[in-house]
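Lecture 7, part B: from sequences to assemblies.

Below are the input chains for today's worked example.
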Amino acid sequence: MTRPHLAAGLAAAAAAAFMGAGLPFLDSSGGYAGLSPRFLPSLVTAALAVCALLLLRRGSVPEHCDDAATAVAPHEGLQRLGWVAGGLLLHMALIGSIGFVLAGALLMACVARGYGSRRPLRDVAAGLAVTIPIWLLFTQALGLSLPLLPLLKH
Amino acid sequence: MGDPLSALAAGFAAALTPVNLLWAFVGCFTGTAIGVLPGIGPALTVAMLLPLTAKVDPASALILFSGIYYGAMFGGSTTSILMNTPGESATMITAMEGNTMARNGRAGPALATAAIGSFVAGTIATVLLSLVAPAAADFALRFGPAEYFTIMVLAFTTVSAVLGASALRGMTSLFLGLAIGLVGIDQNSGQTRYALGIAELYDGIDIVVVAVGLFAVGEALYNVLYLQPAGTMNRMSQVSMTRADWRRSLPAWLRGALIGFPFGLIPAGGAEIPTFLSYAAEKKLSKHPDAFSSNGGPGAIEGVAGPEAANNAAVTAALAPLLTLGIPVSATTALLLAAFQNYNLQPGPTLMQGSAGLVWTLIASLYIGNVMLLVLNLPLVGIWVRILRIPPPLLYGGILIFATLGAYSLRQSWFDLLLLFAIGLLGLGMRRFDFPAAPVLVGMILGPMAEKQLRNALSISQGDWSVFVTRPISLSVLLLTAAVLVVPRVMRRRAAAVPR
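Predicted structure of the full complex, as structure tokens:
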């Protein structure tokens, strides 16, 4: 099983490439410290590249196998992940218009569905039971602004 | 700075007002309630509750946080003992030994020795902290940028290369954290780096988003992808210890506290090593070595008492480098530093001078938090056990509501939620491929500080890099850094070379 190191090595290489691609946009004049805003990014780029190379080299040598239970993501695993990830993205898209309380309840329902719940009404109710007290705490006790229904303001 | 005792008395006077006691209670209660959730450690608890401090005055906020800090640790060991799901590596021993005890019908004594041991060790460590902190801060006043920079290099090295299973993985995490810390306007030159023209990124990426994303969102995504069998819960028993339990626990608590404190103190943090050391010591000294679960026994109470005490002493001592040098050495202290910065307070020797009252209030509130936890939590253990019965779908839904709240309440921007999601995916990958998260947090918060100190040091020396090896303190710290890198390796090689 060599995939973990390969995957991690590729990810580190991508990060190094991203950091490296940004370097030309940075000022390289060092002032009298002789240290430009480009210095640390260059160092980080180089270090990430070295880490990537070492990870990739380890990935090409058969090494200790990962926990068998987590080795492969089964199809239904991805489907479950889709519910949770979708819930998070939906929450992000809607929170500006339906507010924290309702978006949070919706998030709860989606996440619970991903984790195998088949009782959406209970999940929404549980979500409201969490978000309404938080909303009361933030707006009434702490005086923070957390609009209930931002949509209505417009 | 005055003498520590009267300063501490003033700290108590400030912390013991009814309002602040209420905050201490709220902190202990919410800290325990969140910390008890499976897989959630103190760092994540602090991160999720950070928004609570936005409208509270600094002293109350710090009191709230010390309650959360201790409460989360207590909650974490409760979960480790009852369900064997450690929220962080420092409670791994508790999970192993305490859970074995719980499976053999001794959950109550295990919980009691963990709670009382945490109290004893926390109190000893707080006393030592009150003695050490002023002296350390006085000493630190002599430090210049060169010294600070080398100490930060030491912190980077230990958090990434020494702790954890693999130096390579730790280093990769660290440089990833440094890269995240680079995003935004460079404080020294005013130049914007890696913001990709996105206005939300000019201020940099908030540490709360990264911490909550890596821990909470990453965990929720990981667990749904590789659905874990729900941990089986052990039966609770009476939360009391027999006379023999006391006799076996007391020396273990004291030894654990003395092992844990120095490890937290040096900016080479990490509570894992002292908990392992304490466990090894107890196993060696015990009159009942057969009882230890690593020897196939039913679980030994010393094996819970010692490591729990060591853990608590180490995390309390870890506040010393944070308060006196401004250097965080763990994920939790990195978040506490962020809490300070929210109030425009920069921990370090000047804080001990300029806002000494605040620091002493914090130290006094550590004592209060310790007492409050002991008084509250053992009687309330029934409530915490009920929290553990929340079904996973609602548990993870609730965790993600808190996580998104933490990110969204920063500035009510959907962009922070997008970042949270992206970092959650990163956390999923890191969890999957076994990369540690603490170096990311320490790197991102310490990176910009280290860059600033490096630039200041080189400005003073007019670009001469030899300044780091010509000043005695920075040279010693560099040698220490080399030692922590080399010595464990040599020792491991020697241990391997010794024929059986």
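Note for the exam: Chain A touches chain B through 72 residues (CB under 8 Å). Keep this in mind when comparing with the next example.
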